[in-house]
Each structure stands twice: as C-alpha cells, then as structure tokens.
Amino acid sequence: KPRHCCLETLIPERLLVLPVGCKVADDRRPAFVRKATPSPQHGVNLMKVKILKWHAVASWTWDAQDETCGICRMAFDGCCPDCKFPGDDCPLIWGACNHAFHLHCILKWVNSQTPQPHCPMCRREWQFKA
C-alpha cells in the first residue's frame, strides 16, 4: 500500500491542493486530476493546478496598542466623530509617549490646553512623535 506524504484537500470540488514533491496514488485523486498530465522531475510526480477563479480578501488595521481613541472612545478602525469615513481622512497620530489618537481628536485637545498641552492618557507633556 503506498504511503502518502501530503495533505489532500478539495476546495469547492474544483481544486486539489498538494505540496510540491509529494506522490499520490491515482485512485485517491478526483477524476479531473487523474486526467491531468503529471510533469516528472527528479523521480517525483508534480501536479500542475490551474486556478479558474479566486476572490481576494484584505483588511487593514492601525498599528496601535489600544483599539479605541482615548479622547472620543471610538474604535481606530472606524473614524472620529468629525469624520464620515475611516481611513486616510481620519489618520492616527502618535505622541512621544506612544499613545495614539485620531488626528482631529488630539488637535482639538491640544488647542484646548493652556499653557502647555498634556497627553490625555498619561498626562506627560504632549509632543507629536517624530
């Protein structure tokens, strides 16, 4: 009985995922793969897989220690109360103390502090991170 050194996975019955360099018994492969012509290389059967259709999925997040703005308490992956859409129009700003805030939130905070603004989280003197 042949040993199988690979993981066989059917993804919506159209794609067989095999690590390159593994031998698979013909009786274990689906019919559409058995009809494919293997390309021998160094005594190992390599199968070529043609991907007919795929869907790209992506997401983004801000690289901040917290998940919410310490001023408005809105999530960083959303937007501040002054913005309508998240993303480049509502960026995060880091202070020298490494606390992050929405741009609009920290600008309002800094402009309301006299004489010297402090970080709303740790009360250190506020300086924008360079």
Q: Give Rg in angstroms.
A: 27 Å
| Number of helices, counting only DSSP H or I runs of 4 residues or more | 2
Content-based structural category: alpha+beta
Secondary-structure element sequence? Answer: EEHEEEEH
**Nearest-integer average pLDDT:** 72
Q: How many strands?
A: 6
What is the H level of CATH, i.e. the homologous superfamily of the largest domain?
Zinc/RING finger domain, C3HC4 (zinc finger)
Count of individual domains: 2
Pfam family, one: zf-ANAPC11
Keywords: Cell cycle, Cell division, Metal-binding, Mitosis, Nucleus, Ubl conjugation pathway, Zinc, Zinc-finger
Organism: Musa troglodytarum
Family: Belongs to the RING-box family.
Give a description of the structure.
One of its GO terms (cellular component) is anaphase-promoting complex. This is Anaphase-promoting complex subunit 11. Keywords: Cell cycle, Cell division, Metal-binding, Mitosis, Nucleus, Ubl conjugation pathway, Zinc, Zinc-finger. InterPro entries: RING-box_E3_Ubiquitin_Ligase, RING-H2_APC11, Znf_RING, Znf_RING/FYVE/PHD. Belongs to the RING-box family. The chain is α+β, with helices and mostly antiparallel strands and 130 residues long. The chain folds into 2 domains: 9-46, no CATH class; 59-130, Zinc/RING finger domain, C3HC4 (zinc finger) (Herpes Virus-1). The chain is 11% helix and 14% strand. It has helices at 31-34, 103-112, and strands at 9-11, 15-17, 39-41, 44-46, 92-94, 100-102. The strands form 3 sheets. A two-stranded antiparallel ribbon has the order 1-2. It has a two-stranded antiparallel sheet with strand order 3-4. Strands 5-6 form a two-stranded antiparallel ribbon. The longest helix has 10 residues, at 103-112. The radius of gyration is 27 Å and the shape is elongated. The N and C termini lie far apart (65 Å).
